[in-house]
């Protein structure tokens, strides 16, 4: 069994099309077909079934693909380990974080780190919490920053910073002149929240439940700036951290007395997965400077 056959099999499994796979691999279609046929002959079983113009994995192909993906990841990590040993001060760190952390938190972490290690590069991913967890588990990213409300299988998480969440209302809202409030007081207010799967949405729903009500959500967004813009024109109220994108000439911030409204942001990485020296250095740096 040749490594080239393995890569060819993986590409065909991804595209489910011999001609398209041959184009992507820059090989002829007959050569690709022969390679797959030899692989199936060596395994003594077909791996694909034809469906019209496409081919799909059968049960044996699906089983083999899982092993192939694992083998490729092991080899890629081995190559990366060697490169890291050759030059540990260089390299790239893959980081995913919540949209709200891209305003101040993550830029400050990276700015401070690169003052000491200017040759390190970063590949940044902004996503919902559900997406970030999936990226961690599949190995797409090295490190994540998010708020974890309960333990997640395969993910190691350490608390880092705690942010207070404030109720924001329009400057023309009857509550705008208040400085503090109990969350139950806005039980009948239209609520502007984040989409399902976002950390602040999960936390908001939890806090409102603790206050004895389910928020009447009228709009869902992804960015704090968008949420605040909708609040500013009196379309509802929301719970957000105090970040610099909030236009305080248009919205008022009220401290929530009960229940205590805050979120803890932490660093996370996949348990038992190889982390490069530069990724470990970044984790140590952030913990040393910000905890």
Automatic annotation (TrEMBL):
It comes from the Bacteria. One of its GO terms (cellular component) is cytosol. CDD domains: PBP2_GltC_like. InterPro entries: HTH-type_LysR_regulators, LysR_HTH_N, LysR_subst-bd, WH-like_DNA-bd_sf, WH_DNA-bd_sf. One of its GO terms (molecular function) is DNA-binding transcription factor activity. It holds the Pfam family HTH_1. Keywords: DNA-binding, Plasmid, Transcription, Transcription regulation. Residues 1-58 form the HTH lysR-type domain. Belongs to the LysR transcriptional regulatory family. This is HTH-type transcriptional regulator GltC. It comes from Brevibacillus laterosporus LMG 15441. The lineage of its organism: Bacteria, Bacillati, Bacillota, Bacilli, Bacillales.
